[in-house]
Amino acid sequence: MRSVPGTVSIVTTGRAPNRHGLTLTAGCSLSAAPPSVLVCVNRSAGAHDIILSSGSFCWNILGVEHRDLALKFSGQDGSKGDIRFGDGLWCDLKTGAPSLVGAVCSFDCRVVNAYSDSSHTIFTGEVVAQTTRDGCESLVYIDGCFAAPKAV
């Protein structure tokens, strides 16, 4: 799977002081009508149970300038929970899940379904609000490294 490039994102949930988030590449669009996405979250992640109990999440697509934030939300610095939100500028859209100001896109979602499979839960969410920032370059992850996609 390391050879498969993935868009780097941060999935967030909860409200201060009980906000949680994690870095992931396992997210994608699901349908256009209604607008829906899916994200795959490890059940051991701190955000997992908060997504279930709150019934919402925000899928924040990161730009190349968000590399350090991706590292922080991956837990590599040992931080957990609300402390991770000390970096970056965050706001609420509609559900109350934290949205990253300046993200390539942020999709604020109401959980529609949760499917458990192996170590993860696949959350499908109906998009109830979204933001988009034009002219930025998405951050991708491939072969254990962050990268910027290049046009061919």
What is this entry, summarized?
The chain has two helices and twelve strands; from the N terminus they run βββββαβαββββββ. The protein is mainly beta and 152 residues long.
Could you please describe the fold and organization of this structure?
The protein starts with 5 loop residues before the first strand and ends in a 5-residue tail after the last strand. With 152 residues, the protein is mainly β. The protein is globular. The chain is built from two helices and twelve strands, in the order E-E-E-E-E-H-E-H-E-E-E-E-E-E. Strands 3-2-6-9-10-5-4 form a seven-stranded antiparallel sheet, with helices on both faces. The protein has a three-stranded antiparallel sheet with strand order 1-11-12, with no helix packed on it. It has helices spanning 46-54, 67-73, and strands at residues 6-7, 9-13, 20-24, 27-32, 35-42, 56-61, 90-92, 98-100, 105-117, 120-132, 140-142, 145-147. The model has no long low-confidence stretch (mean pLDDT 94).
